[in-house]
Design brief:
Layout (H helix, E strand, L loop, with lengths): L3 H6 L6 H4 L4 H27 L7 H11 L5 E2 H8 L4 H13 L3 E6 L2 E6 L1 H23 L5 H26 L2
Antiparallel strand pairs: 1-3, 2-3
Helix pairs in contact: 4-6
Length: 174
């Protein structure tokens, strides 16, 4: 039950003028996603540093995990699609950095660039996993969150990403 003080404050948003529209809850989600996104990026970078690979940007960490996933090479276009990266140069830069560190190797499938984790990259991902289990998963499990509800939140976030993509395409034609 919300107290009177909580009711007077209104939704927690970063822009009251946007929350004053027809769907204030969407502004709450946007602010929460923004804060969570920054927290998650900071976590990825620091977890990878604790795993022995300092200095990576969040995109590089995500790409390393993706190319290590199921020990299967990915194309640059697959990686951009997977992470909804519009600027291919962002992914290319991350791959160059990972290659220079010996964490991935690149190749070709026809005209497409491919990326695959090296043994060193797979080992870094395993160390990241160990740090994540010890520091993030263990403390999050103590919150006793409903894992099915978390999966539901992820599904809603995926659906909303489609709405934002469609709105972005529409905004381009204005």
């Amino acid at each position: 039950m919300m107290s009177n003080a909580e009711r007077k404050v209104g939704p927690v948003v970063s822009a009251a003028h946007l929350a004053a529209g027809a769907m204030p809850a969407l502004s709450e989600i946007e602010f929460a996603m923004t804060v969570m996104s920054h927290s998650f990026e900071r976590w990825m970078v620091r977890c990878m540093a604790a795993a022995g690979v300092p200095g990576l940007q969040p995109t590089a960490v995500q790409i390393l995990h993706a190319v290590n996933h199921r020990n299967r090479e990915k194309t640059l276009s697959e990686l951009c699609m997977m992470f909804n990266i519009e600027d291919v140069h962002v992914a290319s830069y991350a791959i160059k950095k990972l290659t220079a560190l010996g964490l991935v190797k690149t190749g070709r499938r026809g005209k497409e660039k491919t990326v695959k984790a090296t043994a060193e990259g797979a080992a870094a991902c395993e160390r990241y996993h160990e740090v994540r289990e010890a520091l993030l998963v263990a403390s999050t499990k103590r919150l006793k969150l409903d894992e099915e509800a978390l999966s539901g939140i992820a599904a809603v976030m995926h659906a909303l990403s489609g709405q934002y993509d469609q709105a972005a395409r529409s905004a381009t034609s204005l």
